[in-house]
């Protein structure tokens, strides 16, 4: 087949499926008029708590704020060191710098693109030799697969570090006997439209285990408010989730499990068709991925991307520049070669169309076009 117009993410097909309940949910919000912190927000928080198995869910305006609120509640101060993988979206490290703390970049595991436990351990001992100590780690479940939490939590406990899970891409994934957002006691997720569970605008949520910590987060979400609206007990922000977005998420949550199953089928078909021709993603034992992205690795990635585009197949590069080499972090003094695995991944990664409604014929077209593109 020469050309077939394919969507990278198809939100229209999903909307057609949930249109009735979506209209009902939205119309309820409009007739009630409680646009800020309406009942849909707490209904959603409760449902996400049950779904994830976490003790508390605090919905907020976006995933970046969710990470920032966690660092604020953990009392991160200017000059504090926080360990973070270099191969991730800017938000994961940006929130550290926003508080004038310092990101310390860790390399990744070449098999999963998640934080490397080996690199983490060697950085912790390097800091120790310099008489420095980090406060915590932000791990990312990149592309939807949970990081190596058993090993990470061991390193963290031995060195008195908190572990934040950046689950912006992995809400719904499983790790051993837990789901994401209920593994380390501190997690953040995002409901940006293209995430596996996305709304129709910006949205996010924080998850935690401790009651006291949850109250602190609820206060930070609304200007550090105390027992009433005009009592302020700490520095906070304005980061509520819109009632309308909560209503959208409640509608989407009804089909979420089924969509995860469909995403998994799409991923399996890709792997089956591509594994003998190109490097396909690896999911480690005792965990699942929600396939926020299906990413392959190829030496002539840019050339392949152009060839696919000519056949109507959109691809994306997540992420073309590892964070330690981003201009915004240039004052931290990193140079090329410091984190070789992250740099290698940034040069070769390519994400393919991925959504629950990707049809088999479209997928066959993608697979055969990649096989052909790799040969040339
Ligand atoms: C999307 C994303 C975020 C930020 O979420 P927003 O809702 O866009 O603020 C943070 N971390 C990772 C890994 C992400 O993919």
Description:
The protein has about 375 residues and is an alpha/beta fold. The chain contains 12 helices and 11 strands. The chain has helices spanning about 10-30, 40-50, 65-75, 90-100, 115-130, 150-160, 210-220, 245-255, 255-275, 300-310, 340-350, 360-375; strands spanning about 55-60, 80-85, 100-105, 135-140, 160-165, 175, 180, 185-190, 205-210, 295, 350. A 7-stranded mixed β-sheet has the order 1-9-8-5-4-2-3, with helices on both faces. A two-stranded antiparallel ribbon has the order 6-7. Helix 3 (about 65-75) packs across helix 4, helix 5 (about 115-130) packs parallel to helix 6 (about 150-160) and helix 9 packs parallel to helix 12 (about 360-375). It is globular and about 65 Å long. The structure holds pyridoxal-5'-phosphate. Pyridoxal-5'-phosphate binds near residues 64 and 140.
Q: What tags apply to this protein structure?
A:
seven-stranded mixed beta sheet; two-stranded antiparallel sheet; 12 helices; 11 strands; globular; binds pyridoxal-5'-phosphate
Order of helices and strands: HHEHEHEHEHEEEEEHHHEHHEH
Distance between the termini: 17 Å
Bound ligand species: pyridoxal-5'-phosphate
User: Overall mean pLDDT score?
Assistant: 97
Helical stretch tally: 12
Could you describe the largest sheet, including whether it forms a barrel? 7 strands, mixed
Helix content: 40-55%
- DSSP strand content: 5-15%
Gyration radius, in Å = 21 Å
Strand-pairing-aware structural class: alpha/beta
Spatial shape? globular
- In which order are the strands of the major sheet placed? 1-9-8-5-4-2-3
Count the strands?
Answer: 11
Low-confidence stretches: none
